[in-house]
Specification:
mainly alpha
Length: 203
């Protein structure tokens, strides 16, 4: 097992998934849930991200090639999806749409938390690149371990996000949701812009 490769994977995936930076977004999209449902959402989002990353690590390039879908197209789609979520956070339309439902943690954990926020285009592309350069089972195991370490860090950050919620209170979380919506919108626009630039370079 290469410690250099492990370090590269951990640092790269940590920067992309941003465990601490995603806490405000996590609190915002799960604020209608109770403490137990929020904890389940944190776990399920990490499991979802792990499954998506694992699938793309194994057959990602083949699937994209078979569907004739480019990485910029995947990135643009992820950006549009995040933009829709950001608009809901900014306008507060998700507050009045319905009361908290016991199944809500499943929906928000898979989309947008699990994907495309955690297992988004950046994480998928990085995984495809790392696995494409792996030349033996040991290297692939190292990549899997690095991804697992980052996902555990993400889970712990989300799992204990309720401490931040208790400190801020309901008003603070509402304010934080607007800020998170703005940041999420910026991330979405950047993803779309990067996709457009990549498309232009291919022409």
């Amino acid at each position: 097992m290469s410690s250099v490769l492990l370090g590269e994977v951990v640092v790269t995936m940590a920067v992309i998934m941003d465990p601490i930076g995603n806490v405000p977004i996590f609190l915002s999209v799960t604020r209608r849930l109770d403490r137990r449902a929020r904890a389940r959402a944190a776990l399920l989002s990490c499991i979802t991200a792990a499954v998506v990353i694992a699938v793309f690590a194994v057959v990602g390039r083949q699937v994209l090639d078979y569907l004739d879908v480019s990485v910029p197209a995947l990135q643009g789609a992820g950006g549009l999806l995040l933009l829709l979520v950001a608009l809901e956070l900014l306008t507060g339309t998700e507050d009045t749409a319905r009361e908290a439902d016991p199944a809500d943690h499943v929906a928000v954990a898979m989309v947008p938390l699990g994907t495309p926020l955690l297992a988004g285009p950046g994480a998928i592309v990085a995984t495809i690149v790392f696995t494409g350069e792996a030349n033996d089972a040991g290297a692939r195991a190292t990549i899997a371990l690095g991804v697992a370490v980052v996902l555990i860090a993400v889970f712990l950050a989300m799992r204990f996000a309720s401490i931040l919620q208790r400190v801020l209170g309901r008003s603070g979380i509402l304010l934080l949701s607007r800020i998170a919506g703005l940041l999420l919108a910026a991330i979405a626009v950047q993803m779309i812009a990067d996709a457009v630039i990549a498309f232009a370079r291919q022409v």
